[in-house]
Amino acid sequence: MRLLHTSDWHLGRSFHRVNMLDAQAAFIGHLVSTVRERDVDAVVVSGDVYDRAVPPLAAVELFDDALHRLADLGVPTLMISGNHDSARRLGVGAGLIDRAGIHLRTDPAACAEPVLLTDRHGDVAFYGLPYLEPALVKDEFGVAKAGHEAVLAAAMDRVRADLAGRAPGTRSVVLAHAFVSGGQVSDSERDITVGGVAAVPAAVFEGVDYAALGHLHGSQTLGPRVRYSGSPLPYSFSEADHRKSMWLVDLGPEGQIEAERVDCPVPRTLARLRGTLDDLLADPALARHEEAWVEATLTDAVRPDDPMARLCARFPHTLSLVFDPDRAPDDPDVSYAQRLQGRSDQEIAEDFVAHVRGAGPDTHEQAVLRSAFDAVRTEDTLREVAR
After folding, report:
1. Residue 384 DSSP SS3
2. Of 53, 159, 295, 336, which has fewest CB within 10 angstroms of its CB?
3. pLDDT digits (tens, 9 = 90+) for 326-344
4. Which residues of 217-246 are buried (b: 16+ CB within 10 A; e: fewer)?
5. CA-to-CA distance for 352 and 384, rounded, in angstroms?
């Protein structure tokens, strides 16, 4: 059985004020063409179909168009909700849409109820694990403490139990939206850390033939049976070196896996440039970036006049301008933001206590601070889900 694994469409998202809807539509067209031309048997979309819980109308229309085009091909499509999606909204009408071969899996309680597809070698069970927000699903899965690893492990226990009761030789595919240990992050993924470490080990997916992951935006292989497809388009300059693609996965009769990357259309290349303004404007080696989307980091000791307009004269698609003057580490003018770079909220708060009191917080006070930050993150997550 041949699968096309994709995720993180983020329909409705822009890129530094650039409307990406046309690029997203081009990707959908490319997806449909790939399904038709490469004899794909099933499409799996591992979450973050939309960029936010209440997407703009144009994004909904594009999603509707994608569903109709995939249904017209007669190729089953399986989708789960991600942490950007509203599971309830995305899952509206799922029972009816099932009849058209579009299978939306947004209910955590149904994670062990697979979609069964059949080829000449037998059944393949597709299990959809939507994004599992620990605070919301811990009771459903009967875990004592809300945590990403605990709830995902409990969901996978249900999957393995269901699989064990099926006919011998039944192959299995799991769709999941999570941060798995070993994955490389980028700046455009929403932080899902609540109540501690968000990462879960890849071993949690043991016992299934293929784990089709979503959430991280870079295409990557965490094991022969565990892969992220990545987002089909860039959504931050940290993705400048990404090769945007989908996975074309052949699932053999004994569960063997062969995977090939299928490149996605590139609306415009990304370039991250660094140097003084005069150097960036004069360097002939940078001519290849003149039509790229550009993030420029200026290292001038003194901020130059009208830098954006001057940059745009050479690089008309400059979207981001950063100032990072080359200064000695002990220079008193080093910015506050630079001093805080790479430090967590917890570390910043502890430093503040030490600054105003003359001594850092004790163990109990550290625990109070940690609890406060976890509560804020949880409240933000619940508010986003409620939207």
Report:
1. helix
2. 336
3. 876 555 555 566 666 768 8
4. bbbbebeebbbbbbbbbbbbbbbbebebbb
5. 29
Residue (of 177, 172, 217, 175) closest to 200 by Cα position: 177
Between CA 261 and CA 269, with CA 266 as vertex, the angle to 5 degrees is 120
With CA atoms as reference, report the closest residue to 364 among 353, 348, 380. Answer: 353
> For 128-158, what is each residue's pLDDT tens digit?
999 999 999 999 999 988 889 999 999 999 9
Listing from the earlier edge strand, what are the strands of the sheet with 122-129?
Answer: 115-119, 122-129, 171-177, 210-214, 226-228, 220-223
Confidence at residue 194, expressed as pLDDT on a 0 to 100 scale: 40
In percent, the amount of the chain with pLDDT more than 70 equals 90
What pLDDT does 181 receive?
87
Torsion angle of the four alpha carbons 351, 355, 357, 363, in this order, in degrees rounded to the nearest 10: 10
Distance between CA atoms of 153 and 160, rounded to whole angstroms? 10
Rounded to whole angstroms, the Cα distance separating 115 from 113 reads 7
Strand partners, 180: 200
CA distances, 77 to each of 4, 104, 147, 259, 346 (Å): 9, 8, 30, 18, 43
Identify the CA nearest to 77 among candidates 108, 48, 115: 115
Rounded to the nearest 10°, the torsion over CA 191, 196, 201, 205 is -80
Q: Give the span between the Cα atoms of 23 and 32, in whole angstroms.
A: 14
Q: How many CB atoms lie within 10 A of CB 247?
A: 23
Residue 278 Cα distances to 32, 90, 237, 284, 291, angstroms: 46, 50, 22, 12, 19
- Separation of alpha carbons 129 and 178, rounded Å: 9
CB within 8 A of 157, min separation 6: which ones?
Answer: none
CA distances from 72 to 6, 117, 118 (A): 19, 18, 19
